[in-house]
Amino acid sequence: MVKQLSWKVGGQQGEGIDSAGEILSTALNRKGYHLYGYRHFSSRIKGGHSNTKIRISTSPIRSISDELDILVAFDQETIDLNAYELIADGVILADAKFNPTVPEGVSAHLLAVPFTKIAEEVGMAQMKNMVAVGASIALLGLPVDAFKEVIEERFARKGQKVVDKNMEAITKGLVYVQEEIGNTITKFRLDPSDGKKRLYMIGNDAIALGAIAGGARLMAAYPITPSSEIMEYLIKKLPELGGTVVQTEDEIAAMTMVIGANYGGVRALTASAGPGLSLMTEAIGLAGMTETPAVIVNTQRGGPSTGLPTKQEQSDVLAMLYSTHGEIPKIVIAPSTAEECFYDTIQAFNLAEQYQCPVIILSDLALSLGKQTVDPLDYDRIEIKRGKLVDWNDELPALENSQLFPRYELTEDGISRRVLPGKKDGLHHVTGVEHDETGRPSENPLNRKRMMDKRLAKLKSGIDFDTPVYLDAKHEEADILIVGFNSTRGTITEAKERLEAEGLKVNHAHIRQILPFPTDIMHQQMQKAKKVLVVENNATGQLTNLIKMHVGFADKLVHYGKYDGNPFLPSEIYKQSKELLVHGHI
To answer: What is the pLDDT of residues 429-446, one digit of tens each?
Structure first.
């Protein structure tokens, strides 16, 4: 019996790889196991190697594993590409159809199972993925009944016959493996779970749910990997709440539509990836100049240009901070778990209205598309803050003659009262050129300086964000401080645990508020560490350079970048931390 193991299924894209992983993990989630899943897929609809790796545990986990216990292969390429991950006595469940072989140097057990043949006997060769699910649960020691509810839900719309055939395929795969191995391979049988009900979701779904909970009723966007699931989720849910989703002709239209909706008082968002954000930058500047709230989600992926659209990267940090021409107030936050994706999205809408500026939610592919166990969400935590929005029923001083409402009134905190269109005595100009307090265009040098100072003053005293930096930092004098952002949190946590098991003093700071930068918090943490390792999925050390600029301690800082399209593994961060502590460099 084991408390934790890792399972992977692979084959050609379009062979039901995702379905096999989804059905297995959904059933395990409902039984109370903790899960973390990551998909490797090509930027095409069909063909090309694809795999889904799922980590299963009786306790919370937040990263993919270094090693692999069970590999399910629908072709030889899957074995050749992934067998190196297998533990010494791991198992390969391979379709007997392609006469599988084990690469030289791999000591895993090979069990050839006639996935395709059994599926054909059941009635359809495509159901070989269900046979593979059955073969897998035989190794895991799980009852077949645990999958019945999942299969019924997934295939009910296709009729009871399809449901029954899929269950038959699972059962036959289970029986075949049980008869083949008997009690010879029992090490992969899972310990019982706690049976508690939890969510199992990708970061994109959590962002979409957070948008709904935060009061958003419009999404305008153009589909792009890896953000499209946000749009797909809201297409299903927003109409039920009186809202809508508009698929625009491009990202420029999406961003300007979001500005228009927010100006009218409707909380609205858009979501995209690097290429789409590049198109939005002029309109983001318009939101800053007109002091209009706007929420933008950037799900980072491999760049530049089309780059690696289905692979992991964290190389948009500086672009999100500085790409807008001119200088505007802007907030950039970076959730690191699916739970934070939910709560941070709610906060993003509040921040946008409180500070009347664009708010960017920075995610990455591993967080956006990686699926993980999420504890039940606390809806009592939801609080809607609309800032200095004038209530529709409040009376304003009457406007006389050619007077206008001072929408951009100079205030001590830089934030002016905001009125919705049609509000009596709230008439004012709105323009992208520099303007005075009523919105009238003005090129007066003194006015220009006052308006610039007013806008930039909004964020000078900090913002109302609950956790600028997630800290796991109990040591007053640490051997090393490991810093990251977005999806690397769980991986760093696991590496930290291994290092501390060897007696090292390790602190962890995960930056969640990138703009305004949490200088004071990071200064305090870096002061306590001998060395600082910054872990980021990019080549140029974008977060590392931000820390140098805002905090200093350049002599302590070491950038550890990975930019091959894959997320970090715990062993990689562990190894690099050891190298830094032993040799003083990587």
So the answer is: 999 999 999 999 999 999
